[in-house]
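Re: that backbone. Tokens:
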């Protein structure tokens, strides 16, 4: 039996985890129900997002960070929609940083790969999820980003100057990291400059690797984003 050849064919499989952050209140959406629960094509935003991760070949273990006040509502919605995808439900924190930190604390395997994804980006694709795990395994990090389609100007002291848009990237999620790197970064004190996971990891001294995102992977932030997301989901389902 060619044991050497066989062993060399098996790539070092690491456990994969996906942290879905849903601990926000959605103040910019101005709706009584936080935006992660709003129905898109008949199902809450959050269920669309979790399903994509569940269906990705990387098959991550899913951790959902949700404010404790909404755990009962989530259980009721899962029952109503017959939603049975396995996931660990934990409490969200005061900010996105604190929600991520709570979730990271649940993962003990320091060799794991951890993707962090906004619950309110339901249009992520399985291809991007898998590529992010692959790239993070190789480089330590994989942060999804797209080039700006608009021209860019920077305003300083009331004067605007044109910037080279080819050097500007708009950052999305998933943001995927080797666990040891991410855990060390999240031991830092919270700062208001931490707008995403890449900024936390970068501050800890690690290099960030960008991967190609998708302009369709929108973050549902304002009321008009619901109609845009529904149109994109309908388009996607017609393509299948
Ligand atoms: N304390 C928080 C705040 C935000 N998030 C999550 O981080 C993601 C991106 O945040 P954002 O779009 O800003 O969501 P909200 O904070 O809910 O929205 P807003 O800023 O308009 O209040 C969302 O999935 C949100 O639920 C979180 O897990 N915990
Ligand atoms: C993490 C993020 O989605 C990357 O674009 C974004 O930074 C979240 O920002 P927000 O201020 O919480 O909307």
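Recovered sequence:
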């Amino acid at each position: 039996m060619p044991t050497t050849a066989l062993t060399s064919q098996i790539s070092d499989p690491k456990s994969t985890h996906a942290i879905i952050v849903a601990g926000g209140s959605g103040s910019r959406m101005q709706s009584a129900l936080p935006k992660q629960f709003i129905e898109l094509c008949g199902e809450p935003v959050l269920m669309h997002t979790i399903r994509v991760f569940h269906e990705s070949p990387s098959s991550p273990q899913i951790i959902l960070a949700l404010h404790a006040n909404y755990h009962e509502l989530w259980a009721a919605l899962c029952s109503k929609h017959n939603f049975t995808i396995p996931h660990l439900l934990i409490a969200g924190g005061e900010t996105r940083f604190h929600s991520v930190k709570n979730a990271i604390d649940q993962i003990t395997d320091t060799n794991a790969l951890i993707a962090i994804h906004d619950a309110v980006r339901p249009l992520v694709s399985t291809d991007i999820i898998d590529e992010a795990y692959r790239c993070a395994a190789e480089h330590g990090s994989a942060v999804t980003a797209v080039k700006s389609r608009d021209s860019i100007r920077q305003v300083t002291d009331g004067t605007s100057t044109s910037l080279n848009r080819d050097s500007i990237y708009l950052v999305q999620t998933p943001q995927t990291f080797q666990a040891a790197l991410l855990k060390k970064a999240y031991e830092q004190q919270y700062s208001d400059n931490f707008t995403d996971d890449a900024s936390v990891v970068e501050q800890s001294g690690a290099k960030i690797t960008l991967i190609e995102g998708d302009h369709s992977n929108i973050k549902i932030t304002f009321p008009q984003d619901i109609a845009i997301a529904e149109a994109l989901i309908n388009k996607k389902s017609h393509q299948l």
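The longest strand covers residues 169-178. The pocket of cytidine-5'-triphosphate (ligand 1) is lined by residues 21-28, 36, 65, 92-96, 99, 118-120, 219, 221 (CB under 6 Å).
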